[in-house]
Amino acid sequence: MSLPGRPTTAIVMALGTAQTVSWASTYYLPAVLATPMAADLGISPVMIFAAFSAAMVVSAIVGPWAGMMIDRHGGRGILIASNLIFATGLACMGLAQGPLLIWLGWLIVGLGMGIGLYEAAFATLACIYGREARSPITGITLIAGFASTVGWPLSALMEARYGWRIACFGWAGLHLLLALPLNAWLPAGNLAVPSASATKADGGGAVPSRARLTMVLLAFVFAVTWFTSTAMAAHLPRLLEAAGATTAVAVGAGALIGPAQVAARILEFTLLRRFHPLVSTRLATLTHPIGAGVLLWLGAPGAYAFAFLHGAGNGVLTIAKGTLPLALFGPVGYGLTQGLIGGPGRALQAAAPLIFGFALDRYGVNAIWLTSGLGIAALIALLLVNSGRTEPSP
Questions:
Q1: Fewer CB in 10 Å around end: N or C, the chain?
Q2: Is 6 helix (H, G, I), strand (E, B) or coil?
Protein backbone atom coordinates (compact mmCIF):
# COMPACT_ATOMS: atom_id res chain seq x y z
CA MET A 1 0.00 0.00 0.00
CA SER A 2 1.50 3.29 -1.13
CA LEU A 3 0.12 6.76 -0.48
CA PRO A 4 -0.08 9.51 -3.11
CA GLY A 5 3.35 11.15 -3.27
CA ARG A 6 4.65 8.99 -0.42
CA PRO A 7 5.67 5.48 -1.46
CA THR A 8 5.90 2.95 1.35
CA THR A 9 9.65 2.52 0.85
CA ALA A 10 10.21 6.27 1.26
CA ILE A 11 8.08 6.37 4.43
CA VAL A 12 9.98 3.43 5.88
CA MET A 13 13.34 5.01 5.03
CA ALA A 14 12.35 8.36 6.54
CA LEU A 15 10.91 6.95 9.74
CA GLY A 16 13.69 4.36 10.07
CA THR A 17 16.36 7.05 9.76
CA ALA A 18 14.61 9.29 12.30
CA GLN A 19 14.36 6.32 14.66
CA THR A 20 18.07 5.63 14.22
CA VAL A 21 18.86 9.16 15.42
CA SER A 22 16.43 8.83 18.32
CA TRP A 23 17.82 5.52 19.56
CA ALA A 24 21.48 6.43 19.00
CA SER A 25 21.16 9.71 20.94
CA THR A 26 19.28 8.26 23.91
CA TYR A 27 19.35 4.52 24.64
CA TYR A 28 22.89 4.08 23.30
CA LEU A 29 24.32 7.36 24.60
CA PRO A 30 25.42 6.44 28.16
CA ALA A 31 27.65 3.58 27.03
CA VAL A 32 30.01 6.11 25.42
CA LEU A 33 29.42 9.40 27.26
CA ALA A 34 28.66 8.36 30.86
CA THR A 35 32.31 8.04 31.89
CA PRO A 36 33.56 11.35 30.42
CA MET A 37 30.44 13.11 31.73
CA ALA A 38 31.07 11.82 35.23
CA ALA A 39 34.81 12.55 35.14
CA ASP A 40 34.27 16.14 34.01
CA LEU A 41 31.53 16.84 36.56
CA GLY A 42 33.28 15.08 39.44
CA ILE A 43 30.52 12.55 40.04
CA SER A 44 30.27 8.78 39.80
CA PRO A 45 29.27 7.15 36.50
CA VAL A 46 26.67 5.31 38.58
CA MET A 47 24.81 8.61 38.94
CA ILE A 48 24.67 9.00 35.16
CA PHE A 49 23.23 5.52 34.75
CA ALA A 50 20.80 6.16 37.61
CA ALA A 51 19.53 9.24 35.76
CA PHE A 52 19.23 7.14 32.60
CA SER A 53 17.19 4.54 34.52
CA ALA A 54 14.91 7.31 35.78
CA ALA A 55 14.44 8.41 32.15
CA MET A 56 13.18 4.93 31.25
CA VAL A 57 10.70 5.06 34.12
CA VAL A 58 9.41 8.39 32.81
CA SER A 59 9.07 6.89 29.34
CA ALA A 60 7.00 4.03 30.74
CA ILE A 61 4.63 6.47 32.44
CA VAL A 62 3.98 8.67 29.39
CA GLY A 63 3.85 5.85 26.83
CA PRO A 64 0.10 5.05 27.10
CA TRP A 65 -0.81 8.75 26.81
CA ALA A 66 1.36 9.12 23.71
CA GLY A 67 -0.23 6.04 22.16
CA MET A 68 -3.71 7.42 22.81
CA MET A 69 -2.79 10.72 21.15
CA ILE A 70 -1.45 8.89 18.10
CA ASP A 71 -4.69 6.89 17.90
CA ARG A 72 -6.66 10.11 17.82
CA HIS A 73 -4.51 12.34 15.63
CA GLY A 74 -1.89 10.22 13.92
CA GLY A 75 1.79 10.09 14.79
CA ARG A 76 3.42 12.93 12.87
CA GLY A 77 2.83 15.64 15.49
CA ILE A 78 3.90 13.42 18.39
CA LEU A 79 7.09 12.39 16.62
CA ILE A 80 7.94 16.01 15.77
CA ALA A 81 7.39 16.92 19.43
CA SER A 82 9.72 14.09 20.47
CA ASN A 83 12.56 15.54 18.38
CA LEU A 84 12.09 18.95 20.01
CA ILE A 85 12.06 17.34 23.46
CA PHE A 86 15.11 15.18 22.72
CA ALA A 87 17.02 18.26 21.52
CA THR A 88 16.04 20.17 24.66
CA GLY A 89 17.12 17.37 26.99
CA LEU A 90 20.43 16.84 25.21
CA ALA A 91 21.16 20.58 25.22
CA CYS A 92 20.36 20.66 28.93
CA MET A 93 22.94 17.93 29.54
CA GLY A 94 25.47 19.75 27.39
CA LEU A 95 25.09 22.85 29.59
CA ALA A 96 25.32 20.94 32.87
CA GLN A 97 27.85 22.05 35.49
CA GLY A 98 26.72 19.51 38.06
CA PRO A 99 24.31 16.63 38.64
CA LEU A 100 21.16 18.79 38.72
CA LEU A 101 21.07 19.63 35.01
CA ILE A 102 22.26 16.12 34.12
CA TRP A 103 19.25 14.67 35.92
CA LEU A 104 16.92 17.27 34.45
CA GLY A 105 18.27 16.57 30.99
CA TRP A 106 17.77 12.83 31.31
CA LEU A 107 14.24 13.28 32.66
CA ILE A 108 13.41 15.44 29.65
CA VAL A 109 14.96 12.83 27.37
CA GLY A 110 12.83 10.22 29.15
CA LEU A 111 9.74 12.15 28.16
CA GLY A 112 10.97 12.08 24.58
CA MET A 113 11.64 8.34 24.79
CA GLY A 114 8.07 7.78 25.92
CA ILE A 115 6.66 9.50 22.84
CA GLY A 116 9.35 9.05 20.21
CA LEU A 117 10.83 5.53 20.11
CA TYR A 118 9.58 2.29 18.56
CA GLU A 119 6.16 2.21 20.22
CA ALA A 120 5.27 5.59 18.74
CA ALA A 121 6.75 4.69 15.36
CA PHE A 122 4.83 1.39 15.25
CA ALA A 123 1.60 3.15 16.20
CA THR A 124 2.21 5.75 13.50
CA LEU A 125 2.57 3.02 10.88
CA ALA A 126 -0.57 1.29 12.16
CA CYS A 127 -2.43 4.58 11.68
CA ILE A 128 -1.16 4.80 8.11
CA TYR A 129 -1.40 1.18 6.97
CA GLY A 130 -3.78 -0.55 9.37
CA ARG A 131 -3.33 -4.32 9.35
CA GLU A 132 -0.87 -3.99 6.46
CA ALA A 133 1.70 -2.38 8.78
CA ARG A 134 3.65 -5.58 9.48
CA SER A 135 6.14 -5.15 6.62
CA PRO A 136 6.72 -1.41 7.25
CA ILE A 137 7.28 -2.14 10.97
CA THR A 138 9.87 -4.76 10.04
CA GLY A 139 11.43 -2.28 7.62
CA ILE A 140 12.05 0.46 10.16
CA THR A 141 13.56 -2.03 12.62
CA LEU A 142 15.94 -3.18 9.89
CA ILE A 143 17.15 0.40 9.49
CA ALA A 144 17.12 1.46 13.14
CA GLY A 145 18.77 -1.84 14.07
CA PHE A 146 22.00 -0.10 13.13
CA ALA A 147 21.49 2.61 15.76
CA SER A 148 24.29 1.29 17.95
CA THR A 149 26.51 0.66 14.91
CA VAL A 150 26.10 4.32 13.94
CA GLY A 151 25.58 5.87 17.36
CA TRP A 152 28.49 4.48 19.35
CA PRO A 153 31.24 5.41 16.86
CA LEU A 154 29.69 8.83 16.15
CA SER A 155 29.33 9.64 19.86
CA ALA A 156 32.90 8.46 20.46
CA LEU A 157 34.20 10.54 17.54
CA MET A 158 32.47 13.72 18.70
CA GLU A 159 33.59 13.14 22.29
CA ALA A 160 37.22 12.47 21.32
CA ARG A 161 37.50 15.53 19.09
CA TYR A 162 35.30 18.08 20.82
CA GLY A 163 34.31 16.70 24.24
CA TRP A 164 31.12 15.18 25.59
CA ARG A 165 29.26 18.50 25.73
CA ILE A 166 29.63 19.09 21.99
CA ALA A 167 28.60 15.48 21.46
CA CYS A 168 25.32 16.23 23.26
CA PHE A 169 24.83 19.41 21.23
CA GLY A 170 25.70 17.50 18.06
CA TRP A 171 22.96 14.93 18.67
CA ALA A 172 20.54 17.76 19.51
CA GLY A 173 21.38 19.32 16.16
CA LEU A 174 20.77 16.05 14.33
CA HIS A 175 17.31 15.88 15.88
CA LEU A 176 16.48 19.37 14.65
CA LEU A 177 18.16 19.22 11.24
CA LEU A 178 17.61 15.58 10.22
CA ALA A 179 15.11 13.62 12.30
CA LEU A 180 12.52 16.39 12.72
CA PRO A 181 12.22 17.18 8.97
CA LEU A 182 11.93 13.45 8.20
CA ASN A 183 9.13 13.03 10.75
CA ALA A 184 7.45 16.21 9.49
CA TRP A 185 7.37 14.69 5.99
CA LEU A 186 5.23 11.75 7.17
CA PRO A 187 1.51 11.68 6.31
CA ALA A 188 -0.63 13.66 8.73
CA GLY A 189 -3.56 12.22 10.66
CA ASN A 190 -4.95 8.75 11.14
CA LEU A 191 -5.39 7.44 7.60
CA ALA A 192 -6.15 3.75 8.12
CA VAL A 193 -8.69 3.90 10.98
CA PRO A 194 -9.87 7.52 11.10
CA SER A 195 -12.55 7.42 13.75
CA ALA A 196 -12.80 4.08 15.52
CA SER A 197 -9.43 4.42 17.21
CA ALA A 198 -10.53 7.48 19.15
CA THR A 199 -13.62 5.60 20.29
CA LYS A 200 -11.58 2.83 21.78
CA ALA A 201 -8.99 5.20 23.22
CA ASP A 202 -11.78 6.94 25.09
CA GLY A 203 -12.98 3.62 26.46
CA GLY A 204 -15.97 3.49 24.13
CA GLY A 205 -15.47 -0.18 23.29
CA ALA A 206 -16.06 -3.01 25.71
CA VAL A 207 -12.85 -4.95 26.24
CA PRO A 208 -13.53 -8.70 26.63
CA SER A 209 -11.83 -10.56 29.45
CA ARG A 210 -9.88 -12.63 26.90
CA ALA A 211 -8.47 -9.43 25.42
CA ARG A 212 -7.46 -8.18 28.88
CA LEU A 213 -5.75 -11.49 29.66
CA THR A 214 -3.93 -11.40 26.33
CA MET A 215 -2.70 -7.87 27.06
CA VAL A 216 -1.42 -8.95 30.47
CA LEU A 217 0.37 -11.94 28.96
CA LEU A 218 1.99 -9.83 26.26
CA ALA A 219 3.02 -7.17 28.79
CA PHE A 220 4.72 -9.93 30.79
CA VAL A 221 6.42 -11.41 27.72
CA PHE A 222 7.87 -8.14 26.51
CA ALA A 223 8.82 -7.01 30.02
CA VAL A 224 10.92 -10.11 30.75
CA THR A 225 12.45 -10.29 27.28
CA TRP A 226 13.41 -6.60 27.39
CA PHE A 227 14.87 -7.23 30.84
CA THR A 228 17.09 -9.87 29.27
CA SER A 229 18.00 -7.66 26.32
CA THR A 230 19.03 -4.78 28.59
CA ALA A 231 20.89 -7.06 30.99
CA MET A 232 22.91 -8.54 28.12
CA ALA A 233 23.60 -5.10 26.65
CA ALA A 234 25.09 -4.04 29.98
CA HIS A 235 26.90 -7.22 31.04
CA LEU A 236 27.53 -9.51 28.04
CA PRO A 237 31.36 -9.22 28.06
CA ARG A 238 31.50 -9.90 31.81
CA LEU A 239 29.17 -12.88 31.42
CA LEU A 240 31.28 -14.42 28.66
CA GLU A 241 34.47 -13.83 30.64
CA ALA A 242 32.81 -15.57 33.62
CA ALA A 243 32.26 -18.53 31.27
CA GLY A 244 36.02 -18.64 30.60
CA ALA A 245 36.29 -16.51 27.47
CA THR A 246 39.15 -14.08 27.01
CA THR A 247 38.41 -10.39 26.68
CA ALA A 248 39.12 -10.58 22.94
CA VAL A 249 36.70 -13.47 22.49
CA ALA A 250 34.05 -11.71 24.60
CA VAL A 251 34.31 -8.55 22.51
CA GLY A 252 34.32 -10.52 19.25
CA ALA A 253 31.26 -12.50 20.29
CA GLY A 254 29.47 -9.34 21.35
CA ALA A 255 30.09 -7.88 17.91
CA LEU A 256 27.94 -10.68 16.45
CA ILE A 257 24.77 -9.44 18.13
CA GLY A 258 24.12 -6.62 15.67
CA PRO A 259 24.52 -8.77 12.53
CA ALA A 260 22.47 -11.53 14.16
CA GLN A 261 19.63 -9.11 14.83
CA VAL A 262 19.65 -7.89 11.24
CA ALA A 263 19.83 -11.45 9.85
CA ALA A 264 16.85 -12.50 11.98
CA ARG A 265 14.86 -9.45 10.90
CA ILE A 266 15.54 -10.26 7.24
CA LEU A 267 14.31 -13.80 7.94
CA GLU A 268 11.16 -12.35 9.51
CA PHE A 269 10.71 -10.02 6.52
CA THR A 270 10.98 -12.91 4.02
CA LEU A 271 10.19 -16.42 5.25
CA LEU A 272 8.45 -15.87 8.59
CA ARG A 273 6.08 -13.18 7.30
CA ARG A 274 3.98 -16.04 5.87
CA PHE A 275 3.13 -17.15 9.39
CA HIS A 276 1.25 -15.49 12.23
CA PRO A 277 3.60 -13.27 14.31
CA LEU A 278 2.85 -15.51 17.29
CA VAL A 279 4.90 -18.27 15.63
CA SER A 280 8.05 -16.17 15.20
CA THR A 281 7.64 -14.65 18.69
CA ARG A 282 7.47 -18.08 20.32
CA LEU A 283 10.58 -19.17 18.42
CA ALA A 284 12.39 -15.98 19.41
CA THR A 285 11.83 -16.55 23.13
CA LEU A 286 13.67 -19.87 22.82
CA THR A 287 16.89 -18.63 21.27
CA HIS A 288 18.35 -17.08 24.43
CA PRO A 289 17.74 -20.19 26.61
CA ILE A 290 19.16 -22.44 23.86
CA GLY A 291 22.21 -20.21 23.55
CA ALA A 292 22.61 -20.22 27.34
CA GLY A 293 22.56 -24.01 27.31
CA VAL A 294 25.33 -24.05 24.70
CA LEU A 295 27.38 -21.57 26.76
CA LEU A 296 27.01 -23.57 29.97
CA TRP A 297 27.82 -26.81 28.14
CA LEU A 298 30.81 -25.66 26.09
CA GLY A 299 32.09 -22.74 28.15
CA ALA A 300 34.24 -20.25 26.23
CA PRO A 301 33.91 -22.07 22.86
CA GLY A 302 30.16 -21.52 23.07
CA ALA A 303 30.46 -17.73 23.39
CA TYR A 304 29.92 -17.01 19.70
CA ALA A 305 26.93 -19.33 19.42
CA PHE A 306 25.34 -17.76 22.50
CA ALA A 307 25.84 -14.21 21.24
CA PHE A 308 24.43 -15.05 17.80
CA LEU A 309 21.36 -16.86 19.16
CA HIS A 310 20.66 -14.13 21.70
CA GLY A 311 20.98 -11.43 19.04
CA ALA A 312 18.75 -13.27 16.60
CA GLY A 313 16.00 -13.71 19.16
CA ASN A 314 16.27 -10.11 20.25
CA GLY A 315 15.98 -8.95 16.64
CA VAL A 316 12.71 -10.82 16.09
CA LEU A 317 11.28 -9.78 19.47
CA THR A 318 11.78 -6.12 18.57
CA ILE A 319 9.58 -6.63 15.51
CA ALA A 320 7.09 -8.75 17.46
CA LYS A 321 6.53 -5.92 19.90
CA GLY A 322 4.92 -4.07 17.02
CA THR A 323 3.46 -6.82 14.85
CA LEU A 324 2.00 -9.20 17.45
CA PRO A 325 -0.34 -6.68 19.16
CA LEU A 326 -1.38 -5.50 15.69
CA ALA A 327 -2.27 -9.03 14.61
CA LEU A 328 -4.12 -9.83 17.84
CA PHE A 329 -5.93 -6.54 18.52
CA GLY A 330 -6.03 -4.83 15.12
CA PRO A 331 -5.26 -1.19 14.30
CA VAL A 332 -8.17 0.28 16.31
CA GLY A 333 -6.68 1.81 19.46
CA TYR A 334 -3.31 0.27 18.62
CA GLY A 335 -1.28 3.16 20.03
CA LEU A 336 -2.86 2.95 23.47
CA THR A 337 -2.51 -0.84 23.42
CA GLN A 338 1.18 -0.46 22.60
CA GLY A 339 1.68 1.99 25.45
CA LEU A 340 -0.06 -0.23 27.99
CA ILE A 341 1.78 -3.38 26.89
CA GLY A 342 5.17 -1.68 26.71
CA GLY A 343 5.06 0.27 29.97
CA PRO A 344 6.03 -2.56 32.36
CA GLY A 345 8.91 -3.50 30.08
CA ARG A 346 10.38 0.00 30.15
CA ALA A 347 10.16 0.07 33.95
CA LEU A 348 11.80 -3.35 34.27
CA GLN A 349 14.51 -2.33 31.81
CA ALA A 350 15.53 0.39 34.23
CA ALA A 351 16.34 -2.19 36.89
CA ALA A 352 17.86 -4.84 34.61
CA PRO A 353 21.55 -3.77 34.74
CA LEU A 354 21.49 -3.60 38.55
CA ILE A 355 19.63 -6.88 39.11
CA PHE A 356 21.62 -8.93 36.61
CA GLY A 357 24.88 -7.32 37.70
CA PHE A 358 24.19 -8.43 41.28
CA ALA A 359 23.39 -11.96 40.09
CA LEU A 360 26.56 -12.05 38.01
CA ASP A 361 28.69 -10.92 40.95
CA ARG A 362 27.14 -13.54 43.20
CA TYR A 363 26.73 -16.56 40.91
CA GLY A 364 29.10 -15.97 38.00
CA VAL A 365 28.08 -17.57 34.71
CA ASN A 366 25.22 -19.35 36.45
CA ALA A 367 23.44 -15.99 36.55
CA ILE A 368 22.34 -16.90 33.06
CA TRP A 369 19.80 -19.25 34.60
CA LEU A 370 17.86 -16.11 35.56
CA THR A 371 17.47 -14.81 32.01
CA SER A 372 16.99 -18.31 30.60
CA GLY A 373 14.20 -18.95 33.08
CA LEU A 374 12.55 -15.71 32.06
CA GLY A 375 12.75 -16.81 28.42
CA ILE A 376 11.04 -20.10 29.21
CA ALA A 377 8.38 -18.26 31.23
CA ALA A 378 7.79 -15.96 28.24
CA LEU A 379 7.30 -18.97 25.97
CA ILE A 380 4.79 -20.50 28.39
CA ALA A 381 2.88 -17.21 28.47
CA LEU A 382 2.81 -17.11 24.66
CA LEU A 383 1.49 -20.66 24.53
CA LEU A 384 -1.52 -19.37 26.48
CA VAL A 385 -2.19 -16.72 23.83
CA ASN A 386 -4.67 -17.61 21.11
CA SER A 387 -3.74 -16.49 17.62
CA GLY A 388 -7.32 -15.40 16.87
CA ARG A 389 -8.32 -11.74 16.90
CA THR A 390 -9.21 -10.42 20.34
CA GLU A 391 -10.01 -6.81 19.45
CA PRO A 392 -13.20 -5.39 20.93
CA SER A 393 -16.06 -4.16 18.84
CA PRO A 394 -16.17 -0.35 18.70
A1: N
A2: strand
| Contact assessment for residue 193 and residue 130, using Cβ atoms and an 8 Å cutoff | yes
The CATH number given to whatever domain includes residue 231 is 1.20.1250.20
If asked whether residues 234 and 178 sit together in one domain, one would say: no
Q: Which residues contact 246 (CB under 8 A, 6 or more apart)?
A: 300
Query: Is the pLDDT score of 339 beyond 90?
Result: no
* pLDDT over 90 at 84, yes or no: yes
Is 190 in the same domain as 217? no
Phi then psi dihedrals of residue 3, to 5 deg: -100, 150
CB 368 within 8 A of CB 240: no
Give the integer Cα–Cα distance in Å for 349 and 387.
27
186, 59: one domain: yes
pLDDT confidence of residue 1: 53
> Cβ distance 262 to 244 under 8 Å?
no
pTM exceeds 0.85, yes or no: no
- Gap between the Cα atoms of 9 and 28, Å rounded: 26
Interatomic CA distance for residues 264 and 110, integer angstroms: 29
> Is residue 234 located within the same domain as residue 327?
yes
Number of domains in the chain: 2
Pairwise CA distance, residues 325 & 85, whole Å: 27
Does 318 lie in the same domain as 263? Answer: yes
Confidence of residue 208 (pLDDT cuts 50, 70, 90): low
- The answer to whether 110 and 66 have CB atoms below 8 angstroms apart is no
Q: How far is CA 285 from the centre of its chain?
A: 16
Residue 193: its pLDDT value, please? 54
Position 202 pLDDT exceeds 60: no
